[in-house]
Design a protein that fits this description.
It is a single chain. This protein has 10 helices and 13 strands. The chain has about 280 residues and is of the alpha/beta class. The strands form 4 sheets. The protein has a 7-stranded parallel β-sheet with strand order 3-2-1-4-5-6-11, sandwiched between helices. The protein is globular and about 55 Å long.
Protein backbone atom coordinates (compact mmCIF):
# COMPACT_ATOMS: atom_id res chain seq x y z
CA UNK A 1 0.00 0.00 0.00
CA UNK A 2 1.38 3.43 -0.92
CA UNK A 3 1.98 5.98 1.83
CA UNK A 4 -0.99 8.30 2.43
CA UNK A 5 -0.57 11.28 4.74
CA UNK A 6 -3.30 13.04 6.70
CA UNK A 7 -2.45 16.49 8.07
CA UNK A 8 -4.40 17.45 11.20
CA UNK A 9 -4.48 21.14 12.11
CA UNK A 10 -3.82 22.14 8.50
CA UNK A 11 -5.63 25.48 8.67
CA UNK A 12 -3.76 26.62 11.79
CA UNK A 13 -0.71 28.88 11.84
CA UNK A 14 1.93 26.13 11.65
CA UNK A 15 -0.33 23.70 9.80
CA UNK A 16 -0.75 25.98 6.80
CA UNK A 17 3.04 26.06 6.30
CA UNK A 18 3.32 22.29 6.67
CA UNK A 19 0.45 21.91 4.17
CA UNK A 20 2.42 23.70 1.46
CA UNK A 21 5.23 21.20 1.89
CA UNK A 22 3.08 18.07 2.10
CA UNK A 23 0.61 18.93 -0.67
CA UNK A 24 3.24 17.98 -3.28
CA UNK A 25 3.31 14.51 -1.67
CA UNK A 26 -0.41 14.05 -2.15
CA UNK A 27 -1.24 14.61 1.51
CA UNK A 28 -4.81 15.31 2.56
CA UNK A 29 -5.87 17.99 5.06
CA UNK A 30 -8.40 17.33 7.80
CA UNK A 31 -10.84 20.27 7.93
CA UNK A 32 -14.12 21.00 9.65
CA UNK A 33 -17.12 22.07 7.59
CA UNK A 34 -16.68 25.57 9.05
CA UNK A 35 -12.92 25.78 8.39
CA UNK A 36 -11.43 28.64 6.39
CA UNK A 37 -9.27 26.80 3.84
CA UNK A 38 -7.94 29.91 2.09
CA UNK A 39 -4.41 29.30 3.40
CA UNK A 40 -4.26 25.76 1.98
CA UNK A 41 -2.86 24.87 -1.47
CA UNK A 42 -5.62 24.82 -4.08
CA UNK A 43 -4.89 21.25 -5.16
CA UNK A 44 -4.77 19.80 -1.64
CA UNK A 45 -7.31 17.07 -0.93
CA UNK A 46 -9.71 17.99 1.88
CA UNK A 47 -11.10 15.41 4.30
CA UNK A 48 -14.05 16.54 6.40
CA UNK A 49 -13.92 15.60 10.05
CA UNK A 50 -13.74 16.84 13.64
CA UNK A 51 -11.24 16.04 16.38
CA UNK A 52 -14.10 15.67 18.84
CA UNK A 53 -15.54 12.77 16.81
CA UNK A 54 -14.19 9.65 15.12
CA UNK A 55 -11.88 10.70 12.32
CA UNK A 56 -11.92 9.18 8.82
CA UNK A 57 -8.53 7.47 9.14
CA UNK A 58 -9.08 4.44 6.91
CA UNK A 59 -6.52 4.29 4.12
CA UNK A 60 -4.05 6.66 5.78
CA UNK A 61 -0.67 5.28 6.82
CA UNK A 62 0.79 8.51 8.25
CA UNK A 63 -0.68 11.29 10.38
CA UNK A 64 0.99 14.66 10.97
CA UNK A 65 -0.63 16.35 13.96
CA UNK A 66 -0.18 20.14 14.08
CA UNK A 67 -3.24 20.91 16.21
CA UNK A 68 -2.95 21.68 19.93
CA UNK A 69 -2.24 18.76 22.24
CA UNK A 70 -3.76 20.67 25.14
CA UNK A 71 -7.46 19.87 24.79
CA UNK A 72 -7.64 16.15 25.60
CA UNK A 73 -8.22 14.94 22.03
CA UNK A 74 -4.94 13.11 21.53
CA UNK A 75 -5.40 9.92 23.63
CA UNK A 76 -8.63 8.83 21.87
CA UNK A 77 -7.12 9.85 18.52
CA UNK A 78 -4.09 7.64 19.16
CA UNK A 79 -6.38 4.69 19.92
CA UNK A 80 -8.30 5.37 16.70
CA UNK A 81 -5.07 5.56 14.69
CA UNK A 82 -3.93 2.18 15.98
CA UNK A 83 -7.30 0.62 15.19
CA UNK A 84 -7.31 2.12 11.68
CA UNK A 85 -3.84 0.78 10.88
CA UNK A 86 -1.94 4.09 10.85
CA UNK A 87 1.78 3.32 11.12
CA UNK A 88 3.67 6.63 11.26
CA UNK A 89 2.76 9.73 13.27
CA UNK A 90 4.40 13.08 13.97
CA UNK A 91 2.98 15.18 16.81
CA UNK A 92 3.70 18.84 17.57
CA UNK A 93 3.79 19.45 21.31
CA UNK A 94 5.45 22.46 23.02
CA UNK A 95 8.33 23.31 25.36
CA UNK A 96 5.68 25.04 27.51
CA UNK A 97 5.32 21.69 29.31
CA UNK A 98 8.53 22.60 31.16
CA UNK A 99 7.03 25.65 32.86
CA UNK A 100 7.34 25.79 36.64
CA UNK A 101 4.25 28.00 36.87
CA UNK A 102 0.66 26.78 37.32
CA UNK A 103 -0.78 25.76 33.95
CA UNK A 104 -4.17 24.20 33.32
CA UNK A 105 -3.07 22.64 30.04
CA UNK A 106 0.28 21.24 31.19
CA UNK A 107 -1.17 18.01 32.61
CA UNK A 108 -3.34 17.52 29.53
CA UNK A 109 -0.32 17.93 27.25
CA UNK A 110 1.80 15.54 29.32
CA UNK A 111 -1.00 12.96 29.23
CA UNK A 112 -1.19 13.42 25.45
CA UNK A 113 2.55 12.85 25.07
CA UNK A 114 2.34 9.76 27.27
CA UNK A 115 -0.49 8.35 25.14
CA UNK A 116 1.67 8.79 22.04
CA UNK A 117 4.79 7.29 23.62
CA UNK A 118 2.86 4.31 25.00
CA UNK A 119 1.32 3.48 21.63
CA UNK A 120 2.43 0.97 19.00
CA UNK A 121 2.79 3.78 16.45
CA UNK A 122 6.08 4.70 14.83
CA UNK A 123 5.91 8.14 16.45
CA UNK A 124 7.98 11.31 16.74
CA UNK A 125 7.19 14.29 18.97
CA UNK A 126 8.52 17.78 18.27
CA UNK A 127 8.43 20.35 21.06
CA UNK A 128 8.90 23.84 19.61
CA UNK A 129 9.43 27.01 21.59
CA UNK A 130 7.28 30.07 20.78
CA UNK A 131 6.47 30.01 17.06
CA UNK A 132 6.59 33.27 15.10
CA UNK A 133 6.82 34.43 11.51
CA UNK A 134 3.68 36.19 10.20
CA UNK A 135 0.81 38.37 11.39
CA UNK A 136 -0.92 35.13 12.41
CA UNK A 137 1.45 34.45 15.30
CA UNK A 138 0.16 35.44 18.73
CA UNK A 139 3.18 37.13 20.26
CA UNK A 140 5.94 38.56 18.09
CA UNK A 141 3.50 40.16 15.63
CA UNK A 142 1.90 42.04 18.55
CA UNK A 143 5.34 43.09 19.75
CA UNK A 144 6.25 44.42 16.29
CA UNK A 145 3.03 46.44 16.02
CA UNK A 146 3.60 47.89 19.49
CA UNK A 147 7.20 48.85 18.74
CA UNK A 148 6.21 50.45 15.43
CA UNK A 149 3.87 52.79 17.32
CA UNK A 150 5.73 53.44 20.56
CA UNK A 151 9.40 54.28 21.32
CA UNK A 152 9.17 53.00 24.91
CA UNK A 153 8.73 49.39 26.05
CA UNK A 154 8.06 48.27 29.66
CA UNK A 155 10.38 45.40 30.51
CA UNK A 156 9.40 42.95 33.22
CA UNK A 157 12.00 40.29 33.88
CA UNK A 158 14.83 39.41 31.54
CA UNK A 159 14.61 35.66 31.05
CA UNK A 160 16.09 33.89 28.05
CA UNK A 161 13.89 33.48 24.96
CA UNK A 162 14.51 31.35 21.87
CA UNK A 163 11.54 31.70 19.46
CA UNK A 164 11.42 29.44 16.41
CA UNK A 165 10.68 30.79 12.92
CA UNK A 166 7.63 29.05 11.47
CA UNK A 167 9.34 28.15 8.17
CA UNK A 168 12.13 26.40 10.11
CA UNK A 169 9.60 24.41 12.12
CA UNK A 170 7.64 23.40 9.02
CA UNK A 171 10.90 22.22 7.42
CA UNK A 172 11.63 20.23 10.57
CA UNK A 173 8.28 18.42 10.36
CA UNK A 174 9.07 17.24 6.83
CA UNK A 175 12.67 16.36 7.72
CA UNK A 176 11.42 14.19 10.60
CA UNK A 177 9.19 12.27 8.20
CA UNK A 178 12.16 11.62 5.92
CA UNK A 179 14.71 10.66 8.58
CA UNK A 180 15.07 7.03 9.72
CA UNK A 181 16.66 8.25 12.97
CA UNK A 182 13.59 9.96 14.44
CA UNK A 183 11.45 6.91 15.22
CA UNK A 184 10.04 6.92 18.76
CA UNK A 185 11.99 10.00 19.79
CA UNK A 186 11.16 13.41 21.28
CA UNK A 187 12.96 16.57 20.16
CA UNK A 188 13.06 20.12 21.50
CA UNK A 189 13.34 22.58 18.62
CA UNK A 190 14.09 26.30 18.95
CA UNK A 191 15.63 29.33 17.28
CA UNK A 192 19.36 29.56 16.61
CA UNK A 193 20.41 31.18 19.90
CA UNK A 194 18.75 32.16 23.18
CA UNK A 195 18.29 35.89 23.74
CA UNK A 196 17.65 37.85 26.92
CA UNK A 197 14.24 39.51 26.68
CA UNK A 198 15.84 42.96 26.47
CA UNK A 199 17.94 41.88 23.48
CA UNK A 200 14.92 40.26 21.83
CA UNK A 201 12.93 43.51 22.13
CA UNK A 202 15.81 45.58 20.76
CA UNK A 203 16.23 43.18 17.84
CA UNK A 204 12.50 43.38 17.07
CA UNK A 205 12.65 47.17 17.30
CA UNK A 206 15.45 47.31 14.73
CA UNK A 207 13.33 45.18 12.39
CA UNK A 208 10.66 47.92 12.33
CA UNK A 209 13.19 50.78 12.21
CA UNK A 210 12.65 51.90 15.78
CA UNK A 211 15.05 53.02 18.52
CA UNK A 212 13.44 51.77 21.69
CA UNK A 213 13.89 52.79 25.31
CA UNK A 214 13.38 49.99 27.80
CA UNK A 215 11.80 50.83 31.16
CA UNK A 216 12.25 48.28 33.91
CA UNK A 217 9.01 47.39 35.69
CA UNK A 218 9.02 45.35 38.92
CA UNK A 219 7.36 41.96 38.54
CA UNK A 220 4.83 42.64 41.32
CA UNK A 221 3.74 45.89 39.70
CA UNK A 222 3.42 44.22 36.32
CA UNK A 223 1.31 41.38 37.77
CA UNK A 224 -0.95 43.93 39.49
CA UNK A 225 -1.25 45.88 36.24
CA UNK A 226 -2.27 42.72 34.41
CA UNK A 227 -4.99 42.04 36.98
CA UNK A 228 -6.34 45.58 36.66
CA UNK A 229 -6.14 46.04 32.89
CA UNK A 230 -6.79 42.41 31.82
CA UNK A 231 -4.82 43.09 28.61
CA UNK A 232 -2.66 40.09 29.49
CA UNK A 233 -3.04 37.60 32.31
CA UNK A 234 -0.86 37.59 35.44
CA UNK A 235 0.39 34.15 34.35
CA UNK A 236 1.59 35.57 31.03
CA UNK A 237 3.46 38.32 32.90
CA UNK A 238 5.13 35.80 35.22
CA UNK A 239 6.23 33.74 32.22
CA UNK A 240 8.25 36.73 30.98
CA UNK A 241 10.75 36.05 33.76
CA UNK A 242 11.08 32.32 32.99
CA UNK A 243 14.00 31.09 30.89
CA UNK A 244 12.80 29.57 27.63
CA UNK A 245 16.11 28.40 26.16
CA UNK A 246 16.49 24.84 24.87
CA UNK A 247 19.20 22.82 23.17
CA UNK A 248 18.31 21.39 19.76
CA UNK A 249 21.51 19.36 19.40
CA UNK A 250 19.61 16.07 19.01
CA UNK A 251 17.47 17.52 16.21
CA UNK A 252 20.55 18.87 14.44
CA UNK A 253 22.20 15.46 14.63
CA UNK A 254 19.24 13.31 13.62
CA UNK A 255 17.56 15.35 10.89
CA UNK A 256 19.80 18.32 10.12
CA UNK A 257 17.81 20.97 11.98
CA UNK A 258 19.51 24.34 11.42
CA UNK A 259 17.25 27.27 12.41
CA UNK A 260 17.75 30.90 11.42
CA UNK A 261 18.65 33.63 13.89
CA UNK A 262 15.91 35.68 15.51
CA UNK A 263 17.30 38.77 13.77
CA UNK A 264 16.78 37.14 10.36
CA UNK A 265 13.37 35.70 11.18
CA UNK A 266 11.91 38.81 12.78
CA UNK A 267 13.15 40.96 9.91
CA UNK A 268 11.32 38.72 7.46
CA UNK A 269 8.21 38.92 9.60
CA UNK A 270 8.35 42.72 9.80
CA UNK A 271 8.75 42.88 6.02
CA UNK A 272 5.82 40.51 5.47
CA UNK A 273 3.66 42.66 7.77
CA UNK A 274 4.65 45.87 6.00
CA UNK A 275 6.30 47.25 9.16
CA UNK A 276 9.91 47.23 8.01
CA UNK A 277 11.65 50.28 6.52
CA UNK A 278 13.55 47.82 4.32
CA UNK A 279 12.00 46.42 1.16
CA UNK A 280 11.49 42.62 1.09
CA UNK A 281 14.17 40.68 -0.76
CA UNK A 282 13.09 39.57 -4.23
Amino acid sequence: MSDRILLVGATGFLGSFVARRLAVRGAAALVRSSSNVAALPDAMELVRGDLNADLPLDGFTTVVYCASMGFGQVPPLVRGMQTAGVKRAVFISTTAIFTSLPSASRTVRLDAELAVQSSTLDWTILRPTMIYGTARDRNISRLLRFLKRWPVFPLCGNGLWQPIYVEDLADAVVAVLDSPHTSRRVYNVAGAQPLALADLVRTAARAVGRDVTLIRVPLRAAVLGAKLTRIVTPEQVRRLAEDKAFSYADAARDFGFAPCSFADGVTREAQAMGLSPMRPAV
